[in-house]
Design brief:
The protein contains 12 helices and 10 strands. Helix 1 packs antiparallel against helix 2 and helix 6 packs across helix 12.
């Protein structure tokens, strides 16, 4: 029985009820003095409580699809496979460079050991948006080549990396550590020298903005698709065109990445979505994003459906990677999305045999994803 199966849930629930009823039935016999009876009463109570905890855990796991299989829960090795693409037809601290839009923001975490010219460098900065008033902290990883004299005039491709909701960039570093993995891939010749920018789209916690310019709220989309790229270009040697810029994320960060690619192909030419949705939505955490009832709201809601965009609007000239597992509950939605892709857009599925909505799955997918992105970006 798999972790998300109804049979397992009903079995655990039935055993819990049986243990609870048995405890109540036998309690008068156990209510005697002596060490054995005390241990028996403790065992009966703990067994009933453990059953309730397991039932709650199974319900939560079933709702979030965090661990679909026992192998996912126990950390079994996973093999990533790529499906067929659709739609085909010096060591000085560089942070800021005097930019008004990129400010140092405290010490950077020590996730890399060695000289910048050998392993690269991570800096903590704040990226300012003068029109939106937003200013998010970001970790910027510069590859070793950025500091080497031979690359002094080179402009580098860049990957904007988004978190989930309510994720933080510190959690991304702790659980996935993209700079260390990118440094290793670059050293092995499996990834071209690339700048990574780890940033959170959660600008108004505890509210979930879904990365949109919400009506009467923060202009998150404008910040990430206009002001963040402008800020980064003002401070670092980065390629100018969309073919040198990628955006990726996990969970809601993947949804945001796909949305930015579909809406702003002139900014991001490459997209990677690990476990995201295929549309934007409103709920209690987002509040009203698309305004009051009326024609404008209806139009915004329609455009927020990625499938509708693929069917009714010209396909954008972007390359998209969709990371999922064949056991994921969103796998059917992924197949529907892939079936709607038309040239010049290209979409490639990256599939796991099993895997849930969790960091274990994203850790397996991250290395192949970085290599795939590197192949798509301008060299």
């Amino acid at each position: 029985m798999e972790l998300t199966s109804g049979a397992l849930l009903w079995t655990v629930l039935g055993v819990t009820v049986l243990v609870t009823v048995t405890t109540v039935w036998l309690w008068p016999r156990l209510a005697r003095s002596g060490g054995l009876f005390v241990l028996a009463r403790l065992g009966a109570l703990l067994s009933a409580q453990l059953g309730l905890v397991l039932v709650a855990a199974l319900l939560i796991n079933g709702y979030g699809d965090f661990y679909p299989t026992w192998g996912d829960l126990l950390g079994a090795d996973q093999q990533v496979t790529f499906g067929a693409s659709t739609g085909t037809s010096g060591d000085a601290l560089p942070t800021g460079h005097g930019s008004r839009l990129v400010r140092p923001d405290g010490p950077a975490p020590a996730f890399l050991s060695g000289r910048p010219a050998a392993v690269g460098q991570v800096s903590s900065v704040r990226l300012l948006g003068p029109r939106t008033g937003l200013g998010q902290q970001a970790y910027v990883y510069l590859p070793p080549q950025y500091f080497q004299p031979a690359y002094a005039r080179t402009r580098f491709p860049v990957v904007l990396m988004m978190t989930g909701f309510p994720g933080t960039i510190q959690t991304t570093l702790d659980r996935l550590n993209p700079p260390r993995q990118a440094s290793g891939l670059i050293a092995a010749g499996r990834m071209q020298p690339t700048v990574l920018v780890l940033i959170s789209q959660n600008v108004a916690l505890p509210r979930d903005t879904n990365c949109v310019d919400s009506v009467g709220g923060p202009r998150v989309e404008t910040y990430f698709t206009e002001e963040v790229p402008a800020a980064l270009r003002s401070a670092y040697r980065l390629l100018p065109g969309a073919d040198g810029w990628a955006v990726e994320g996990y969970s809601e960060g993947g949804t945001c990445a796909l949305d930015f690619g579909l809406r702003h192909p002139s900014v991001f030419g490459v997209v990677a979505d690990l476990g995201g949705d295929y549309g934007l939505y409103e709920n209690r955490q987002t509040g009203t994003l698309f305004g009051p009832p009326g024609p404008d709201r209806d139009r915004l809601l329609q455009e927020a459906d990625f499938g509708w965009r693929l069917t009714h609007l010209p396909p954008p000239p972007i390359s998209v990677l969709l990371g999922t597992s064949v056991r994921d509950r969103d796998y059917p939605a992924t197949k529907r999305f892939l079936a709607q892709v038309r040239a010049p857009m290209r979409a490639t599925p990256m599939l796991l045999a099993s895997g849930g909505h969790n960091f274990g799955t994203w850790a397996v997918e991250q290395g192949p994803m970085l290599e795939w992105i590197s192949e798509q970006l301008t060299h």
